[in-house]
Amino acid sequence: MSRQLAGALVAVIIGLFLLLVGGTVLRIGAHAAADEPLAPRSPSQPAQGRERDSAVPAISFIESPTPTCYRPDPRTDSCFIHWYYLNVNAAPATYIISMTVAIDGRLVANHQGFFQSSMFVPGELYGRGFEVSCGVPGAAGNPFLGRTHSYVLRARDSNGLSATNYGTVTCPAGLERVYLPLALR
């Protein structure tokens, strides 16, 4: 038996044990609270003793292998942010409605779904990637690298639930600008 399988089995057993013990403690607490008078509550508070729906649907996380930023032409300040692929799966009985990509707060890609339980976007769809400025050496604090760009990936499903994946990617340094003093003769 592999270590991963054994670890997963132990996690499932511990989870079931905690669920069983937690359910028993909640039932004992509910019986003790039944003898106490109910305190006044506001309309926004749920009534005591109501059970929560344990089958609340959830959207899966967005799978997006680490983005890269590369500079194809060293004579320019143009870099390209690229993902190998983007992937998101909906919960059972729901569909993926949309997935968007934003870089530095600017929407750069918008994908719409139509009765599909998952959305897979290969990196080749974006060609070279999304063009950004490389920045001068040290723009993000590291003297050997350029600017750091933030990205946000969002997906929505047909139940209105959403998933978000965000992070940053640092580009290689672009052109270093040297300004010479103006000398008049």
Task: Outline the fold blueprint.
Blueprint: H1 3-34, E1 68-70, E2 78-82, E3 85-89, E4 96-103, E5 106-112, E6 118-122, E7 130-133, E8 145-157, E9 162-172
Quick structural gist:
This protein has 185 residues and is an alpha+beta fold.
What does this protein look like?
The chain has 185 residues and is an alpha+beta fold. It has two domains: 1-36; 68-172, Sandwich (Immunoglobulin-like), CATH 2.60.40. It contains one helix and nine strands; from the N terminus they run αβββββββββ. The relative contact order is 0.17.
Based on Cα principal axes, name the global outline.
elongated
CATH topology of the largest domain: Immunoglobulin-like
Detail the poorly predicted runs.
Answer: 23-54
The first-to-last residue Cα distance is: 83 Å
Assigned CATH class of the largest domain: Mainly Beta
Q: Spell the H/E element sequence.
A: HEEEEEEEEE
Tell me, rounded to a whole number, the average pLDDT: 76
Q: Which structural class best describes the helix and strand composition?
A: alpha+beta
Features:
185 residues; alpha+beta; Immunoglobulin-like; four-stranded antiparallel β-sheet; 1 helix; 33% strand
